[in-house]
From TrEMBL:
Protein name per its UniProtKB record: Adenine deaminase
Adenosine deaminase domain: residues covered: 9-324
Source organism of this protein record: Chroogloeocystis siderophila 5.2 s.c.1
HAMAP family noted in UniProt: Adenine_deaminase (MF_01962)
CDD domains attached to this UniProt entry: ADA
Amino acid sequence: MDTFLQQIPKAELHIHIEGSLEPETMFALAKRNGIELAYKSVQEVRDAYNFQNLQSFLDLYYAGMSVLQTQQDFYDLTWAYLQKAAAENVRHTEIFFDPQAHTSRGIEFATVHTGIHQALQDAKEKLGISAYLILCFLRHLSAESAMATLEQALPYKDTIVAVGLDSSEMGNPPSKFQRVFDRAREAGFYTVAHAGEEGPPEYIWEAIKLLNVSRIDHGVRCVEDTQLVKYLIEQQIPLTVCPLSNIKLCVFDALEKHNIKQLLHMGLCVTVNSDDPAYFGGYVAENLQQTQQALGLSQQDIYQMMKNSFQATFLNPEEKQARI
Ligand code: HPA
Ligand code: ZN
């Protein structure tokens, strides 16, 4: 089973590139950029990764990324992730980035984008992995700030496939960003949104009905609304589920209690992803391995989820087929 899980072709659809910043890299970049970290050692950083909820993680996530300063830093971060993904036979990945978390500290949008984008281009050539970029708006910030960020992204439209919504979910419903997402779709972006991770099923409905999303990121709280579950099945709207993240952020008490198998067997288009692998204890293969073990998933279950993940990409039909 372990070899099967390592070797099966994968697509990853929910990975925040800033969440792939390993503590070792955090220290190396801090040194390179002359930044003082609040931690004395890599071990101290890892020891701090004990989260009570989404917000307690986000506080460390935003603090950690302060070491990212130059185009080269963003390149190195992205390249490191792509190497790991390729080694796990990820054939295609759709990567979130959070420009506002950088522009708010004086780093230019172009610095962030160019560094990440160049790594994606090199990966296609040198690692044989294809990658798309998804710009995420930070939902704890205003709709005006999101709109300004969208305007900044327009010159890079050809290299960004979609826009998404992340950060603190409770109290920041999708409806807050309806106009921004309207504008993004007019400009030709696909849309996705985090919803139903900590937030209620109504946020998932809003993401679908008001933001016209192609996928729901997380979405595990959909089970609380029977009509919603029925709709997600009928429409085959994909959920990008992140099992280890859900455990680390206390969405479920234990992997054995996760609802991913239930969702899959009900016929939802479920996929498995790593979210913030450096913070949550593993990349996509580790997520698959631990979830398979905890829930006793069959090879058929795994195969179905991998098929779902390719089906749920923004690749065109021929490209999808070529990667499976
Ligand atoms: N949820 C919301 N925002 C995030 C996450 C997440 O899981 N990871 C990084 N930003
Ligand atoms: Zn996420």
